[in-house]
Design goal:
The structure holds two protein chains of two kinds.
Chain A: H1 4-19, E1 24-25, H2 26-36, H3 48-57, E2 61-67, E3 73-79, H4 81-109
Antiparallel strand pairs in A: 1-3, 2-3
Chain B: H1 4-17, H2 23-42, H3 47-58, H4 61-69, H5 74-84, H6 90-93, H7 105-137, H8 146-160, H9 162-179, H10 183-224
Helix pairs in contact in B: 2-3, 7-10, 8-10
The chains are: A alpha+beta, B mainly alpha.
Chain lengths: 110, 225
């Protein structure tokens, strides 16, 4: 299981990336991450929401309540223009880290 | 007998007790809780166990409240005060790496405008009311001290070409917003610094106009005697 600090650091890029595929809600985001990481990346469910709200306050994402057929409601989030830019920037940073580590480990394997 | 609705109400009360009172947040957490409890029931747990598991997964309410509070309160106040004073402080609101200096563009412009408005208003008033009066009693500006002639000269230049200047700045900003990818990153710093310098210059100019008015008033008083 991936350690806490790394999970925290990757939360925003993960949310931005998932939302860039389309509108989504908290519960589904958590399960999507769990599924994609093969259960390696685990969020404490509730902790996702302060992050979502902070990202909304930053102007990266926006939200809307949707009423479901069974009378319940869900809060859907989607990416805003600044969110696309933030994603681009985070992607560049994570790519650098990933390629540096990849390069180093490849060297050592030779 | 376990009652889901009652348990959820009780759970909401517990969260409110630790200080998390925003109904919007509570609704969202409740919506999550219901989905998770429902899934656990589908996986075969009895309703009460399903509910308890879902509550556990949401996590410790105190920690959650603490996380929500991080975005609010003193930190936000400090942030607003520093921003109003023109001091860059994105690190304050930064909770996750060096990217939070991308604040929404409108916020940067709005804050800069709000910051400059009072000085601009007073300066405009002085230009419309005080300067013409000063000139009428000083034969144009001819008999005014050199520093006021200089100050008023520049101020009049700006006043007379204000429309061109303003449209020039607006066009430049529109182009930057539209075409430049780097602008986004430096927008806040550049606009903040410009607002600060502009505000300072307006106040200096206003101060000089008032000093001149005081000098002229003294001269007239002397003359009348």
């Amino acid at each position: 299981v991936i350690q806490k600090e790394l999970v925290a650091a990757s939360t925003e890029p993960l949310i931005l990336s998932l939302l860039s595929k389309g509108e989504n809600y908290g519960y589904e985001l958590i399960h999507e991450v769990k599924r994609l990481s093969g259960d390696e990346l685990k969020w404490t469910d509730g902790m996702l929401y302060p992050v979502l709200h902070r990202m909304e306050a930053n102007g990266w994402i926006k939200s809307r309540w949707v009423k479901l057929e069974n009378g319940r409601k869900r809060k859907y989030y989607s990416l805003k223009k600044d969110g696309h830019h933030a994603l681009k920037e985070k992607r560049a940073q994570w790519t650098v880290i990933s390629s540096v580590l990849g390069g180093l480990w490849e060297e050592q394997n030779v | 007998m376990f009652n889901l609705e009652e348990s959820i109400l009780e759970w909401r009360r517990q969260i409110m007790d630790v200080g998390l009172k925003n109904p919007n947040v509570l609704d969202e957490l409740e919506s999550h809780l219901r989905e998770e409890a429902e899934r656990q029931v589908k996986l075969g747990l009895p309703p009460q166990d399903a509910f308890e598991t879902a509550v556990q997964r949401i996590g410790e309410v105190k920690t959650l409240n603490h996380e929500f509070k991080k975005n609010t309160g003193i930190k936000r106040m400090k942030h607003s005060l520093l921003t109003l004073a023109g001091i860059p402080n994105h690190y304050l609101m930064n909770t996750s790496g060096p990217n939070s200096n991308i604040q929404p563009g409108w916020a940067t412009y709005l804050k800069a405008a709000l910051f400059v408005v009072p000085a601009f208003f007073l300066w405009g008033l002085a230009m419309v009311k005080v300067v013409p009066a000063l000139q009428s009693v000083s034969a144009g500006s001819a008999t005014l001290p050199a520093f006021s002639r200089f100050n008023i000269g520049i101020a009049e230049l700006i006043r007379d070409h204000f429309l061109y200047l303003a449209s020039g700045v607006i066009i430049a900003l529109v182009l930057l917003e539209w075409r430049s990818a780097i602008w986004r990153r430096y927008r806040r710093a550049v606009i903040g610094l410009t607002a600060f310098v502009l505000n300072f210059s307006l106040l200096v100019s206003l101060f000089l106009i008032l000093v001149t008015a005081a000098l002229v008033a003294e001269r007239i008083a002397h003359h009348v005697k």
